[in-house]
Design a protein that fits this description.
Number of helices of chain B: 0
Helix content of chain B: under 10%
Number of strands of chain A: 10
Structural class of chain A: mainly beta
Oligomer: heterodimer
Structural class of chain B: mainly beta
Radius of gyration of chain A: 13 Å
Largest sheet of chain B: 7 strands, mixed
Number of strands of chain B: 11
Largest sheet of chain A: 7 strands, mixed
Distance between the termini of chain B: 40 Å
Chain lengths: ~110, ~120
């Protein structure tokens, strides 16, 4: 069974700091098939990054994605107050699979 | 502006049925595959079902196969999810999502606001 494992579970940071979120796949996936979503309380997830490193429309350039094979990273430079949320990685395919999420909280 | 508006959720007893509907606007509905994604309280999103743009092919997660049926009406820009034999573990917020496959870079680029389905006796 294919699994996406995100780490850490919770990241405690201050505004202005950099956040580095990890997503590890149980088997290699194409760079085109890895996306990241942000979810705030009471809201639907929102697409941030697709194809590993392409920002979705309207997403600020402080969000960036990288990686290949089984290891992928979402980096948020200079955290803004609105960036504190839960982030999910996702394998995009005919059967979309999500990681368990990383919560970025205010320290 | 893309809008996806779900309706039809609510409280149902185990073994019961519900039909979710999603009204789409702001894009050419018939050009896009669509998916339903659900999220149980405190859990990650879980993909449930998908349908191609013309409705010719459908996909289901193992957890709902044989119980749920996805369909669409392109003339009315509507997506549906018929849910039968509901179980308590089907309790979740159900999201209607638009698939985008341009440049062979698949993603769920728009999500509805979600509709709560609660299965409880």
């Amino acid at each position: 069974e294919f699994v996406l494992t995100q780490s850490p579970g919770t990241l405690s940071l201050s505004p202005g700091e950099r956040a580095t979120l990890s997503c590890r796949a149980s088997q290699s996936i194409a760079r085109t098939d890895l996306a990241w979503y942000q979810q705030k309380p009471g809201q639907a997830p929102r697409l941030l990054i697709y194809a590993t490193s392409s920002r979705a429309t309207g997403i600020p350039n402080r969000f960036s994605g990288s990686g290949s094979g089984t290891d992928f990273t979402l980096t948020i430079n200079r955290l803004e107050p609105e960036d504190f949320a839960v982030y999910y990685c996702q394998r995009s395919s005919n059967q979309w699979k999500f990681g368990q999420g990383t919560k970025v909280e205010i320290k | 502006e893309v809008q996806l508006l779900e309706s039809g959720g609510g409280l149902v007893q185990p073994g019961g049925s519900l039909r979710l509907s999603c009204a789409a606007s702001g894009f050419t509905f018939s050009n896009h595959a669509m998916s339903w994604v659900r999220q149980a309280p405190g859990k990650e999103p879980e993909w449930v079902s998908a349908i191609t743009n013309n409705g010719g092919t459908t996909y289901y997660s193992d957890s709902v196969k044989g119980r749920f049926t996805i369909s669409r009406d392109n003339s009315k820009n509507r997506l549906f999810l018929q849910m039968n034999s509901l179980r308590e573990e089907d309790t979740a917020i159900y999201y209607c999502t638009k698939e985008e496959w341009s440049l062979s870079q698949p993603r769920l680029d728009f999500w509805g606001q979600g509709n709560l389905v609660r299965v409880s006796s």
